[in-house]
Design brief:
Structural class: alpha+beta
Number of strands: 13
Order of helices and strands: HEEEEEEHEEEEEEHE
Distance between the termini: 73 Å
CATH topology of the largest domain: Outer Surface Protein A, domain 3
Shape: elongated
Radius of gyration: 25 Å
Length: about 210
């Protein structure tokens, strides 16, 4: 019994003296960016400039960057054992990677209108660019008694190649997702996939074919 207690105390002492190190698998992954992208870091933000424009991402003071290798950005934090720093490590790395992709390639989201009589069209907005609009609006017929007119923001590029397909493009992934969710919210997908599939979804369902 005495030997068992001594062994237990020794194990606890060895575990307490050893410091556990947390590593973010997402945050520790290097970010590779093309030569057409320029990065400028400061203590409060990182500026990203690319072929499609420029943007700035606010950062915390404990976030550190490494630019030792050409066209490779390393993101780190001062102390990964602190919960706040550990949480923002991977988040900051993801935001920077999304911003680099947005300034070089952009993001695209297709929306498919599935339903009898569902139609979409892109037309000129009679209000023009008032209320910070782009001068374009979506004309949506989604099975209601009225037509839905949705102005397109200036940061969103909308295309309607088919009456049942809408393509949205933007350099900001967050803003693109918000506008796509707003369009999709007028007629949400039918969860049970009934005989008549009436929805506005991100991907074509089995009834499109």
């Amino acid at each position: 019994m005495l030997l068992r207690q001594l062994a237990t105390r020794t194990t606890i002492a060895s575990c307490s003296s050893r410091r556990l190190v947390h590593v973010s698998h997402i945050g520790a992954k290097p970010i590779q960016y093309p030569p057409t992208v320029t990065l400028e870091t400061s203590s409060t933000a990182i500026s990203i400039t690319g072929p499609l424009g420029s943007t700035s991402i606010p950062i915390y003071p404990f976030v550190k960057f490494g630019l030792d290798t050409p066209n490779v950005l390393n993101v780190a934090v001062e102390d990964a054992e602190i919960k706040k720093q550990r949480q923002m490590w991977g988040t900051t790395r993801t935001l920077i990677a999304n911003a680099i992709q947005g300034m070089t390639e952009g993001f695209t989201v297709p929306l498919y209108l599935v339903g009898v009589g569902y139609r979409a069209a892109l037309e000129d907005d009679p209000r023009g660019t008032t209320d910070s609009g782009s001068g374009k609006r979506l004309n949506l017929k989604l099975g209601f008694a009225h037509t839905i007119f949705l102005p397109v923001p200036p940061y969103i590029k909308a295309e309607v190649p088919l009456p049942t397909k809408i393509i949205l493009t933007c350099t900001d992934k967050h803003l693109l997702g918000l506008f796509a969710a707003k369009v999709r919210g007028y007629r949400k997908p039918e969860p049970y996939k009934g005989k008549v599939c009436t929805q506005l979804c991100y991907e074509p369902c089995w009834q499109v074919n």
